[in-house]
Design goal:
It is a single chain. The chain has 165 residues and is α+β, with helices and mostly antiparallel strands. The chain has two domains: 64 residues; 68 residues, Ribosomal protein S6/Translation elongation factor EF1B (Alpha-Beta Plaits), CATH 3.30.70. Helices cover 60% and strands 22% of the residues. The chain has five helices and four strands. Strands 1-2-4-3 form a four-stranded antiparallel beta sheet. β1 and β2 form a beta hairpin. The protein starts with a helix and ends with a strand.
């Protein structure tokens, strides 16, 4: 070792200063590379994990973009809900029945139905029967009579309500 030291001492001053500054830097650089190696491998693992997460995110976003917008979905849900509520609450109503154009001749209400006489045309008669059958709870027709009365028909009904509970 002393031989290396003697040779170094005979070098010009510039080379001595250069080796005095470069040699510690080289040693520090080698040590830093050794210490940074675990950080490099962790960084590579995190980069790989980030890439996988980005790919999953992109796939999920593509899936969400292919679905209808949320506002459209809400509107469709609202329409379905309204249709469902309309089907659930279709109780018998004399006012609603009269909207079909039939003329009320006589109405004798009772606790569970009553007697109803209407003047109507043949299409109105068909509509009325269909309408009564579609009510929830169903309207029970105890008796029905149909007579011609001039240009119209006279329909006399004895109604009863069924409770489906």
């Amino acid at each position: 070792m002393s031989e290396w030291l003697l040779r170094w001492q005979y070098l010009p001053r510039q080379w001595q200063w250069l080796t005095m500054t470069v040699l510690p830097l080289v040693v520090i650089l080698v040590l830093a590379c050794g210490w940074l190696q675990p950080l490099r491998s962790a960084s590579a693992a995190l980069a790989q994990q980030s890439l996988q997460l980005q790919q999953r995110y992109d796939a999920r976003m593509a899936q969400l973009r292919s679905q209808p917008e949320l506002a459209i979905q809400r509107q469709q849900n609202q329409q379905l809900l309204q249709a469902l509520q309309a089907q659930e609450h279709q109780h018998f109503s004399l006012v609603t029945l009269m909207q079909s154009g039939a003329a009320l001749d006589k109405w004798q209400p009772a606790a569970q139905g009553g007697e109803l006489t209407l003047l109507l045309s043949w299409p109105q008669f068909q509509h009325t029967i269909v309408w009564l059958a579609s009510r929830r709870p169903p309207v029970m027709i105890n008796s029905l009579s149909l007579q011609r009365s001039g240009e119209q028909l006279r329909m006399a009904l004895s109604l009863g309500l069924m409770d489906e509970k």
